[in-house]
Amino acid sequence: MEMRTSRKLRMSFILTFSVLVLATGCFLFPSSGFYNILEIKGYVLSSIDSTAVEGAEILVYEATGNLVKDTAYSDSLGYFTCRWSSLADDAGDYREWIVVVHDIDGDQNGVFADKDTTLIEEDPEHNAYAEWELIFYVDLQ
User: Fold this and answer.
1) DSSP label at 108?
2) Model confidence pLDDT, tens digit, residues 11-69
3) Spatial CA neighbour of 42 closest among 120, 124, 138, 125
4) Cβ(89)–Cβ(120) under 8 Å?
5) Any bridge partners for residue 39, and if so which?
6) For residue 39, with 0-12 CB atoms within 10 Å meaning exposed, 13-18 middle and 19 or more buried, which class applies?
7) Bridge partner list, 68
8) Is the pTM of this model over 0.90?
9) Phi then psi for 93, rounded to 5 degrees?
10) If you average pLDDT over residues 96-102, what whole number do you get?
11) Cβ atoms within 10 A of the Cβ of 65, count?
12) Does the first or last residue of the chain, that is N or C, have fewer Cβ atoms within 10 Å of its Cβ?
């Protein structure tokens, strides 16, 4: 009886270990075709004198506008980074994301209207690393 329990424990351990190794491989090797990594680096600056706008909120949406993929805030230099992964699917040869810069603190650093842009990832396999560098010039009031 003790031998059966020991064998069951060994089999359970082997199965658990195998699942963990498989799951870890999916995260360590993103170019394996399951998903891709997308990244935006950029600045939010005043259109008047190119000074940094701190505390602006940067939102990345799917093109449908339904799902937020990432949120970031500009630092004292106006710099921000957004990074997200996207599952591979049958969406065609490209996919789109909308990036919106939003004023969340009002008069604290100057009021500005939202700015947005659309990013297009052109990779039919959807398994590459894509990076964009953006500068948003906002009209401070």
Assistant:
1) G
2) 555 555 544 444 444 444 444 444 577 899 999 999 999 999 999 999 998 887 777 88
3) 138
4) no
5) 83, 131
6) middle
7) 61
8) no
9) -85, -10
10) 88
11) 9
12) N
